[in-house]
Amino acid sequence: MRICMIAYTHYATDSRVRREAEALASRGDLVDVVSLRKPREETIRKLVGVRVLQIWPGRYRGSSSVMYLASYAGFFVIASICTAVLHLRHRYQIVQVHTMPDFIVFAAVIPKILGAKIVLDVHDLMPELYQSKFGLDERHWLIRLIRWSERQSVRFAHKAIAVNETHLQTLIGHGTPGDKFTIVLNLPDPGLFSGSDTARNGGHRGFRVMYHGTIAARHGLAVAMHAVAVVSREIKDLTFQIVGEGDAIPELTELVNELNLMDCVEFKGAVALEKLAPLILEADIGVVPLLCDEFTRNMLPVKLLEYVALGLPVVCSKTETIAAYFDDSMLQYFAPGDADGLAEGILALYRSPTRRNQLAENARQFNREHNWATEKLNYCHLIDQLANEA
Q: Which of 216, 234, 239, 343 could form a disulfide bond with 227, CB atoms 3.0-4.6 angstroms apart?
């Protein structure tokens, strides 16, 4: 089968895009991905059987909603041209578009006219993200425009994918047709994220707390910094390692200096997925300090699932969606935004290796009920079924 994917992301570090593309490539499908390019990277590269065409020089990081839309628009124009040319050459049966933004799906208009089937994989809820990021009310013209765009994007596609049940119900609440959706959970690839307790924590001294992923205000890292300032009084050999990139780094760096945490906070930067699991295996605990707002309450963070897959105990904000999948015996919960609660959770696990082991073992129940092997079959079935309708 011939499949093209379009994604406004860096392919090497985006776990969901890679997982789905590699699932198709591993069974012999021809898969091209049109994506962003990092500085000094080649325009065309091959990764695990997937051809990646990196056509746009990175995503906008800043505080302007207009500049975000402008960056999206630039990528949209180039992706539209690139996808049309590729389709005339390869005649794709499927074009799958990964959000955000939702309207990137219209970059597949030429392939659709020429007979390709279109899949829209809705990673995130763009209206809620813009409300959260820019402090806008749902009645604001921009939010209403984004919701309208979301509805039109889903209608344009032949099929759509949601990432969990709460996420799907919110999309339906926006007015999108629910019968177009299939749920594919954002689960870790066991080929990359698998490990044993004996493999963990062998590469460093001291007590290491880890966060990885997007570095943005909504992910609660400022709360985590205040918690680290508290626990560092007791844990003298503490390291808080942050792996990722995002527009909150300048504010966090300033907060690190203000709280005098320079000796224990380490910013690692973004790393490829192949290098991420070894870093997690060196940590003692992971933290998922999400704030709770219109956007984050729908999230089941992949970082949490990657920690669980690798047997890492986790201190986590208790939000509606996370609590639907993990009970109190599986995660060390605290109230979103509560720095003291996060500090107490970290200290409780620091003081009790037994508690750490119990949480890690209990959380494995999630892996037994939800795993990529099963989700991959559901995903591939969706692609095959749609292709057969052509």
A: 343
Last residue of a domain, one of 132, 149, 184: 184
The answer to whether 174 and 150 have CB atoms below 8 angstroms apart is yes
Instruction: Identify whether residues 6 and 40 lie together within a single domain.
Output: yes
* Residue 64 C-alpha from the chain's centroid: 22
> Average pLDDT for residues 190-200, to the nearest whole number?
65
Q: pLDDT tens digit string along 289-318?
A: 999 988 888 899 999 999 999 999 999 999
Is 37 in contact with 43 (CB distance < 8 Å)? yes
Residue 374 forms part of a structural domain: no
On the question of pLDDT at 68 being above 50, the answer is yes
Rounded Cα distance between 377 and 193, Å, is: 18
Identity of the residue numbered 7 = A
Within-domain flag for 389: no
What is the DSSP annotation of 263-332?
Answer: TTEEE-----HHHHHHHHHT-SEEEE----STTGGG---HHHHHHHHTT--EEEE--HHHHHH--TTTSE
Contact 316, 331 (CB under 8 A): yes
CATH of the domain at 355: 3.40.50.2000
The answer to whether 308 and 364 have CB atoms below 8 angstroms apart is: yes
Q: Give a yes or no: residue 387 inside a domain.
A: no
Q: Which two tokens stand for residue 307?
A: 């920690």
Q: Output the pTM of the full model.
A: 0.85
Helix ranges restricted to H, the chain? 15-25, 65-90, 109-113, 126-134, 141-156, 165-173, 221-231, 249-258, 273-281, 302-309, 320-325, 339-351, 353-369, 372-388
Q: Is 378 part of a structural domain of the chain?
A: no
Average pLDDT over residues 201-225: 86
Provide the domain count of the chain. 2
How far is residue 109 CA from its own chain's centroid?
26
Domain of residue 105, residue span = 2-184
